[in-house]
Design goal:
The protein is α/β, with parallel strands linked by helices and 490 residues long. 39% of the residues lie in helices and 17% in strands. The protein is elongated, with a radius of gyration of 27 Å.
Length: 490
């Protein structure tokens, strides 16, 4: 009986400590595991300034990149607590890295921290392959769970860990990420606790799984953590660092900065393949490859065009491209302007909800503004006529001889090489970006980078189908239209 009472007192103290670590994952990790006595986990020396923060009480612990990430999570939790709003805006953290920095270990720490500090929390863990989940991710979670000071609170089973007081409602489950298994990621609704997802090797997790998981982040205090080598230039993991980076706290970690990696082997890789090779970018530097298979415009070409300084003279062609929204609801109408090779200095204008006559009016205002600035109207005004030919008609009457209709579904000028006008425009745009200057616009960058091509059986090119880039199709079509201009007037 005495022993039982003694253990109960210990558990009460542990529970009090867990409440203290609600917003302090780093504090939990240092408290919960036997850093001083278990040599098997003494692989990384706790770096400064974190060692000093904890009064030099810990010689071993997480690496610097992990401490920074955990501090970031701590700050986000405090900020949400200060708002006093429920449900929370989801905490989303994405880590892309080279090999061997300890991503699976951090996955285990996060699982233990959430389960130990948040009663009735529920999580789902997956990895890019069943083999990764079964041989690395899940065994690592079990290892650290058994090392934790709260290990006796939990029942550890095959691909699930459950709190002994609430077997169904306080748990984590591991599941494979096959597309047909997407329903297993639905329904993590914990209005008074934390629903959470952790994806290991997230670059290989199908988009359908991501979409379902996002639906489970609408209640309580949700969290979403994703880790992986940046092996693919497409997909949701790539989006965490590009088109959707405004939603994510993201880290890109060079393996050479981690304490536990084999520096000699990493140095050999760099010597064999080159610092800026895709092999080293992905496996060492934690950067996405320059170009995915069938990617028409590599990221390095886009980034160079964003930074390129170009010389222009007043007599250079002044050209405007008008991309008309498919629908006044939701889609954008965009006006793009370039002077010679400079498509950056005059920012694109974007409008939503405009009717035909309003689009015509805004375009006229823009052209008049250019006349006031440069002393002349645009030399050419290219207008997309695919969805709303009325805009072209209205502008043609005002600017006769200047307005040119562009139909992306029309036949290409060079039918030997291109399946249609869209393909031709995209390939001309890819060429123009080698010497032109563009805005540093995340939306434009994403749309340019997602353009893909393939070869038809008869040898012609065909660019990306419109629905493939539907989320950014307005800016994509604008970009193609702008380059069509570049292809005709130097």
């Amino acid at each position: 009986m005495a022993a039982k009472t003694y253990l109960s007192v210990i558990d009460l103290q542990i529970a009090d400590d867990m409440a203290r670590f609600f917003d302090d994952p780093l504090g939990f990790i240092l408290y919960a595991y036997p850093w001083a006595t278990n040599k098997s986990i003494q692989l990384v020396r706790l770096p400064s300034p974190w060692r000093e923060r904890f009064n030099n009480a810990y010689e071993y612990g997480p690496d610097a990149w992990t401490c920074e990430l955990l501090d970031d999570i701590c700050a986000q939790i405090k900020e949400r607590i200060a708002r006093s709003e429920m449900p929370w805006e989801p905490i989303r953290v994405a880590v892309a890295s080279g090999h061997g920095i300890g991503k699976s270990t951090l996955t285990a720490w996060l699982c233990n921290w959430i389960l130990s500090t948040r009663p009735d929390s529920r999580g789902i863990i997956t990895a890019g392959s069943g083999s990764q989940l079964e041989t690395k991710t899940w065994p690592t979670i079990i290892k650290w769970t058994k090392l934790s000071v709260t290990a006796h609170w939990f029942d550890v089973g095959h691909w699930r860990i459950r709190h002994t007081d609430n077997l169904e409602g306080w748990r984590i489950d591991a599941t494979t990420c096959k597309k047909e298994n997407a329903d297993a990621f639905a329904g993590l609704h914990e209005a008074v606790s934390t629903p959470f997802y952790i994806f290991d090797e997230a670059s290989a997790v199908p988009d359908e799984i991501w979409e379902t998981a996002n639906g489970g982040l609408t209640d309580g205090q949700p969290m979403f953590f994703v880790f992986g080598n940046p092996i693919r230039n497409v997909g949701e993991f790539h989006g965490c660092f590009h088109s959707k980076r405004h939603r994510w706290t993201n880290y890109q970690i060079d393996s050479r900065t981690a304490q536990i990696t084999n520096k000699k082997e990493l140095t050999r890789w760099v010597a064999d393949y080159g610092e800026d090779s895709d092999y080293v970018r992905v496996r060492v530097r934690g950067l996405f490859p320059r170009a995915a298979e069938n990617q028409l415009i590599p990221y390095d070409v886009i980034h160079t065009a964003q930074k390129r300084a170009v010389e222009v003279v007043p007599t250079d062609p002044l050209v405007v491209g008008l991309d008309v929204a498919r629908s006044p609801v939701g889609d954008q109408t965009v006006l793009s302007t370039r002077l010679g090779r400079d498509a950056r200095s005059i920012p694109a204008l974007k409008f939503r909800g405009l009717e035909t006559n309003q689009i015509v009016s805004r375009t006229i205002e823009h052209c008049d503004g250019l006349k006031n600035k440069f002393g002349r109207l645009p030399d050419m005004l290219f207008v997309d006529v695919g969805f709303n030919p009325g805009v072209y008609d209205g502008l043609r009457d005002r600017y006769r001889g200047t307005v040119i209709a562009v139909d992306f579904g029309a036949r290409a000028n060079d039918e030997r090489l291109y399946a249609n006008k869209r393909a031709e425009i995209w390939f001309l745009l890819a060429d123009w970006l080698q010497y032109g200057a563009i805005e540093n616009d995340p939306e434009l960058e994403t749309d340019l980078a997602t353009a893909q091509y393939f070869f038809k059986g008869d040898g012609t090119h065909k660019a990306v189908a419109l629905q493939t880039v539907d989320q950014g199709c307005t800016q994509t079509r604008l970009s193609g239209l702008g380059r069509f201009i570049g292809g005709n007037i130097r």
